[in-house]
Write a structure and sequence with these properties.
The complex is a heterodimer of chains A (about 160) and B (about 500).
Chain A lengths: L11 H24 L15 H23 L15 H21 L1 H15 L8 H18 L12
Helix pairs in contact in A: 1-2, 3-4, 4-5
Chain B lengths: L1 H10 L2 H19 L5 H8 L8 H26 L11 H9 L3 H35 L3 H12 L10 H15 L2 E2 L6 E2 L13 H9 L1 H9 L17 H23 L5 H15 L11 H17 L1 H7 L5 H12 L6 H6 L1 H34 L2 H20 L2 H20 L3 H24 L11 H28 L17
Antiparallel strand pairs in B: 1-2
The chains are: A mainly alpha (about 160), B mainly alpha (about 500).
């Protein structure tokens, strides 16, 4: 038993080991047979498209077992940083909203508008105190979009909503 | 004498000097922006060279290439975001140095290591081009297979706090690299009928996701901390510190030269091998990964040592060593020149004019690098609340620009979450990246070897070069395992006080 009253084997490494072991078994017995096509004729088993992913999968399984054993024998000491309090929920929700703006609205809004929206959301998530700095969140995505389109010749989406 | 004057006549023109200066500057700036790679910059600059003289055109592209190789290290050191894949190794020690207020030292070490490696690489190109290319020409799939096996052994060295977790991460990297259409049989591997995955997982979104996005996520998930000014204006590098790392720089440069001369191996592998070698030999190996100047020197010299050397097979044999030299090969052809032995016979003047320009580019890199350090050091002093949203914007635009695909933005964000979880659970991301890069090379050369050997395993041990790499692989594994056990014994509670009380498997 640890000082926290938990059994000695309940620790991050053991849990990670169990997670990766289950993931490796799922990969080896479900994903490899069902989602990697085996050609009708392979000259050598080592040349099969399944060979390298299978070897890597078995390696993950074996190493996960080693991680479980290590976790049981030598439990890791808790990282003092992990005990620190996290950010308020609204902050990471705004961050997720920023990510979603980039991913889901990049084509509908266009690169510039999605960039402005994403940057503004992230500026608000960890509040930038000086209001004039929010102009940066508008000017920079606009300038960088122009750079990409006109200088680097990268066609950026202009926004299907505005068409 | 007449030849010398012809060379100087061809080289000493304002256009050439401007091409080198602008090329290096563009390369450094683009290389420093996450998501924009030197490859992309060289490719985009190619149409601008149509109207230039051949020497000027090639020097512009070479300048961008060299500037990009160095530029990647700037953001790797300052904001934990490698500007280029080859700079991924530089951040292992560069960023911890920034956190310790030694950003200027790290940047200067990166610059000097890059320039020294660049000069040595150029000298190798000029002096040993034909000789080294001849050795590389003898390399077949079995030799490449063992070279990659040797490269894979360095995973143990860069695994971070836990070798087991590092190896799991590397295996996961290999699995992710296997996604896509199989190049030999054309069968689909783990694509789930998604056409975006047919052509493998894109490298740039994965790289940005693993190394840049976790930083953003971590910042917004942690309790707000007061802004700590990154002391980029801290003390500069002393001559003593540079001298202490000189051996490492020369070694790293030679590693870069050898690897660069072998087509297809690349600067990323060179920087990791150089780093691993430096760590193996350094008396300060415990400091590697925690802010060791020698680590920055090793990574940067390895990666820049490649730059000149990749031109060896290109110029003497017409074989491009990497993507950028393939684009430069295209530039030669656009100007009616075919790199190879014939070029040495028919256009020797042009070759030597190029050599002059390539040597000059190292000096220009030093000059531009100094100016840019001062400018880019400001990046470290910007509060993260302002900087990170801008970094994310560059990441998103850069990830999109690779294939003009929103799918790549999602991929980048996905690998960002993976990278964040890896960091939180003690898995190092560098072995994942190495597995991702080396996995397909390993498989490709294994298959080729089996094909040319018709399944006979004796082909793997067909000559002295293969045996050399077998021995190097075995030795590397032996020393890695021995060091691992020694450090574990040292980390036991009944042994000397532990160096690192973080985790149970620490002390590595």
């Amino acid at each position: 038993m640890t000082a926290a009253g938990r059994p000695r084997w309940v620790n991050l490494n053991t849990l990670l080991g169990v997670f990766w072991l289950l993931a490796a078994l799922l990969f080896l017995f479900h994903l490899v047979p069902n989602h990697i096509e085996e050609p009708p004729m392979v000259q050598n088993p080592l040349q099969s498209p399944r060979w390298l992913p299978s070897v890597a999968g078995w390696l993950v399984a074996l190493l996960s077992l080693a991680l479980i054993v290590e976790g049981c024998l030598r439990p890791p000491v808790r990282d003092p940083d992990a005990a620190e309090g996290g950010a308020p929920a609204w902050r990471w929700l705004l961050m997720l909203a920023g990510f979603a703006a980039y991913w889901l609205l990049f084509e509908p809004l266009g690169a510039t508008a999605a960039g402005i929206l994403g940057t503004l959301l992230l500026f608000a998530a960890h509040p930038v105190r000086r209001p004039w700095l929010y102009l940066l969140a508008i000017a920079l995505p606009w300038l960088v979009s122009l750079l990409f389109v006109h200088v680097l010749n990268v066609p950026m989406p202009s926004g299907t909503l505005w068409d | 004498m007449e030849g010398v004057s012809e060379v100087l006549n061809l080289f000493l023109s304002l256009d050439n000097f401007m091409a080198i200066g602008i090329g290096v500057l563009i390369g450094v700036v683009v290389g420093a922006i996450p998501g924009l790679t030197a490859t992309m910059a060289v490719a985009l600059a190619l149409p601008f060279t149509f109207s230039l003289e051949p020497v000027t055109a090639i020097l512009l592209l070479v300048g961008i290439y060299k500037g990009g190789m160095y530029g990647g290290s700037i953001t790797a050191i300052l904001i934990h975001t490698p500007g280029s894949p080859a700079a991924a190794c530089t951040l292992l020690d560069g960023y911890p140095l920034t956190l310790q207020g030694k950003a200027k030292k790290a940047l200067q070490m990166a610059l000097y290591a890059s320039c020294i490696a660049d000069v040595l690489s150029n000298l190798a190109l000029i002096l040993f081009a034909s000789y080294l290319a001849k050795i590389a020409l003898n390399f077949g799939p079995p030799e490449f297979f063992w070279l990659i096996c040797f490269s894979l052994t360095i995973i143990v060295s860069i695994a971070g706090e836990s070798a087991i977790k590092g190896l799991i991460a590397a295996s996961l990297g290999v699995i992710v690299a296997s996604i896509g259409m199989d190049v030999v049989y054309g069968s689909q591997r783990l694509t789930f009928d998604n056409y975006n995955l047919m052509d493998r997982v894109s490298f740039v979104p994965l790289l940005i996701g693993l190394f840049a996005v976790p930083e953003v996520i971590d910042f917004y998930l942690k309790k707000a901390a007061p802004h700590v000014r990154a002391a980029s204006s801290g003390l500069g590098l002393t001559l003593k510190e540079l001298r202490a790392s000189l051996k490492t720089i020369v070694r790293g440069s030679l590693i870069g030269v050898i690897i660069g001369a072998i087509p297809g191996t690349g600067a990323t592998a060179a920087s990791f091998i150089s780093y691993s070698e430096a760590k193996r030999r350094s008396p300060n190996r415990q400091n590697f990964g925690k802010g060791e100047l020698e680590g920055v020197a090793a990574a940067e010299s390895g990666n820049n040592g490649v730059a000149g050397a990749t031109l060896i097979p290109l110029l003497s044999l017409g074989i491009p060593g990497d993507v950028i030299t393939a684009i430069i090969l295209g530039a030669f052809m656009i100007h009616g020149l075919t790199p190879g032995p014939v070029l040495f016979q028919e256009n020797l003047t042009l070759i030597y004019a190029l050599f002059c320009g390539i040597m000059l580019s190292s000096a220009v890199l030093l000059f531009v690098g100094h100016g840019v350090i001062r400018y880019f050091s400001l990046v470290a002093d910007i509060p993260k609340a302002i900087l990170l949203p801008i970094v994310l914007m560059f990441c998103v635009y850069g990830a999109f620009a690779v294939n003009n695909s929103v799918f790549d933005i999602g991929l980048m964000l996905f690998f960002g979450v993976v990278g964040y979880l890896f960091n939180r659970t003690g898995f190092a991301t560098a072995p994942f990246l190495l597995g991702f890069i080396l996995g397909p090379m390993f498989e490709d050369n294994l298959r080729r070897t089996l094909l040319i050997g018709r399944g006979d395993p004796a082909i793997f041990f067909r000559g002295p070069i293969t045996w050399l790499f077998v021995a190097l692989t075995a030795l590397s594994l032996f020393f890695a395992v021995r060091r691992y056990w020694q450090e574990r014994i040292a980390a036991r509670p009944d042994a000397a006080p532990r160096a690192h009380p973080g985790t149970g498997d620490s002390g590595r």
